[in-house]
Amino acid sequence: MIEALVHPIARLANAGGPVLVVIALVAVVLFTLALERLIYWQWRYRRQRQALITRWQKRHEHVSWSARTLRECWCGELISALRASLPWLKLLVALCPLLGLVGTVTGMIQVFDTLSITGVGQARGMSDGVARATLPTLAGMAVAVVGILFTSRFEHIVRREDQHLHDRLTRATEIDHA
Amino acid sequence: MTRPLAGAALAMMVGVSLPASAAEQSAPSLEDIVQSYQQGAAQAQQRDLSRLDTLLKDRGQLEQAVAEAEARQQKAQARRDSLDGTRQRQEEAIASINERRNSEGDDLQPMFDRLRHEIDDTRDSLKNSWLTLGSDISLPSLDDSSIASSDDLEQYAQSMSQLIARSAQGEHLTLPVAGQDGNITQRDVVRLGGMSAFSGGDLLSAPNGDRPLAVAAHTPDSVSSELKALASGQGDTMALDPTDGEVLEALAQQPSLLERIKQGGVIGYITLALGAVGLLIALAQFAWLALVSTRTRRQMHHFEELRSDNPLGRVLKRFGQQQRYHEPEVLEARMDEMLLAEQPGLERGQAVVKVIAAIAPLMGLLGTVTGMIGTFQAITVFGSGDPKMMAGGISQALVTTVLGLVVAIPLLFANTALNSRSRNLMNLLERQASAHLADRMDEQQSGLEADTRRHGSAS
User: Bias regions of kind Basic and acidic residues — which residues (chain B) (predicted)?
Assistant: First the structure.
């Protein structure tokens, strides 16, 4: 069972060379970080937001300059915590095509090495290098596309949450004052 | 006196080509030589004349000599005739024997040819085989017309069975082996059937006739350690070169990492140098940011004592020197100004790192293009017939691309790390300063109210 699962992966890693393994590691880190962000947003962030709203409601006054500054400050803290690992996610997404390119070029070098040893007669001898040239590019692109979908979506979520937070804080005090 | 002598010696060396040393030792004059030569010629003429004289005088003796010679010739003629007769008889005998052999052994002839062919083939292939290492297996030698005896057949079959037995054996031998430096030493050699042999951790290149064994040009490290383990009986895996040394030769020609970098040329070196500079800057700035953030965090725990070795302490200290009872907007503007003044120190070096990260792939592209120009020049000169000529230039072109990317990737990492770190610090500063400001405004407000109340009650 495990053998049947591992074997195709091992074959793929062997055909794609070390660069493919690096891309796989980057993908694992990328999607782990993404999952962690989603879980954070769904659980921890909501609790913290609720705590912030009750803290704001408990304050004796909400209209002075200092109160507004303090509110900005608290909101900023919460939103930047939500945004924390987004730059790293973006970096990893940007890295994937670059790694794919590295794989392409090292694969091409291998192709030309084979060419300089065996001559053009043996097209079969080159196929190893060609696989190493094409597989990392494909993998890099695939990971990058999924990563971009996630990061842009999450960016949107963060922006929406920012507005949402301000709205809710204002509404909370309005209800209080009314 | 010396000058004519020297001149004569020179003339003899050039003209007569006598050994120079003899000419220098005796050095007879040219006239003497001519004179002695003329004397010798006169003497020889004199001798010939006297011999002719005696011959003419002694005619009887001459005729006798002729008669003797004729008798000798007749005798030789007779002997030759008899020998011819023998030869003819023998040829007839050979013809009849051959005829008999053909008629009796007609079926055997192809077999003999076959055997001879096989023996020659075996001998040729044994010349480049590991099987005969350390043993002398002798094959029967048959020439074109000889008839193979049953002994020969037996010997051939025996040596073949020995060879087959040896092809399944691995054995330790001590043989002279030529090392990489060309010195031949007695070394412990392990022979594995007819497939391979190695000495220590080095594969041996295929044997070539009578020449001593030689170490292969390059044995990969992993293979070398495998072989060592196998020779000492600890390992059970080994590497084979099924192409008779072609792969080993190709491996020896494969450039190492340093040679690869060298292939990148000037542009490769420039890219690497840029990368090193960028990494150093990033490391220095990262260390600085780490220091600043620990100091800032320490400051956050001790607000009563403001230090000026961190940005938060500096901002709050300068802010504390402000006059009281300012409008909130004015205070906020002052605070923004102070925070802006702290920003460049925290973001120092980021621009350089970012620029280098952007430049490095471009440098790689530049190297690729210059390499391709070199390749096309090679095509112009040598034609496209030999792909090996182009392949060198192309792999050279690609190495720079790899170098560019290899430099860019860590710098992108460093840039993101620096950026997020400095932004975190900036946010922290802003929040702390704002919180401090808000506290102060509250204080000021309550102070103001207290003052008004006091004044009100006093009036």
Answer: 450-459
- Among chain A residues, the shortest Cα distance to B394 is held by A112
Beta-strand ranges (E) seen in chain A are: none
Instruction: Give the closest of A95, A101, A116 to B388, CB-based.
Output: A116
Structural domains in chain A (count): 1
CA distance B334 to chain A (A): 15
Find, in chain B, the residue whose alpha carbon is nearest to that of A74: B431
The answer to whether the CB of B193 falls within 8 A of the CB of B167 is: yes
Residues B240-279: pLDDT tens digits? 777 777 777 777 777 778 888 888 888 889 999 999 999 9
CB contact under 8 A, A65 and B328: yes
How far are the Cα atoms of B115, B163, B171 from residue B213, in angstroms, in the given order? 30, 19, 16
Measure Cα distances from A127 to A35, A50, B28, B391, B395 in Å: 37, 59, 85, 16, 17
Domain span at residue A103? Answer: 90-177
Closest CA to B353 of B417, B435, B399: B417
Q: A89 and A33 in contact (C-beta within 8 Å)?
A: yes
The domain segmentation of chain B, as residue ranges, is: 36-128, 168-248, 257-452
Residue B295 forms beta bridges with which residues?
none
- Supply the DSSP string of B221-285, one letter for each residue: HHHHHHHHHHHTTS-------TTTTHHHHHHHHS--HHHHHHHTHHHHHHHHHHHHHHHHHHHHH
Which candidate, B309, B316, B348, places its Cα nearest to that of B334? B316
Cα distances (Å, whole numbers) of residue A101 to A138, B260, B269? 10, 18, 20
Q: Which amino acid is at B418?
A: L
- B445 neighbourhood in chain A, CB within 8 Å: 64, 66
Please, are residues B268 and B367 in contact by the beta-carbon 8 Å criterion? yes
pLDDT at A35: 94
**For chain A, percent of residues with pLDDT exceeding 70:** 96
B231's CB contacts (< 8 A; 6+ apart) are: B188, B190, B198, B200
Identity at B357, one-letter amino acid code: A
Residues B130 and B194: beta-carbon distance below 8 Å: yes
CA–CA gap between residue A165 and residue A116 (Å, rounded): 64
Smallest CA-to-CA distance from A169 within A58, A56, A63 is with A56
Structure token digits, residue B381: 């000169």
User: What phi, psi does A96 have (nearest 5°)?
Assistant: -60, -50
Query: Is the reported ipTM for this assembly greater than 0.85?
Result: no
CA distance B349 to B281: 6
Distance CA B12, CA B18 (A): 6
- The CA distance from B46 to B40, in Å, is 10
Model pLDDT, residue B45 = 94
Element containing residue B78 per DSSP (H, E)? helix B59-104
**Tokens found for residue B227:** 């072989």
**Distance (Å, whole) CA A87 – CA A99:** 18
Contact across the interface for B437 and A98, Cβ inside 8 Å = no
Q: Shortest CB distance from B412 goes to which of A70, A91, A116?
A: A91
**Residue B198, C-beta contacts closer than 8 angstroms, at least 6 positions apart:** B189, B190, B192, B204, B227, B231
CB A83 within 8 A of CB A158: yes
Distance of CA B236 to the CA centre of its chain: 29
Write the CB contacts of B188 (distance below 8 Å, at least 6 apart in sequence).
B172, B173, B174, B199, B200, B231
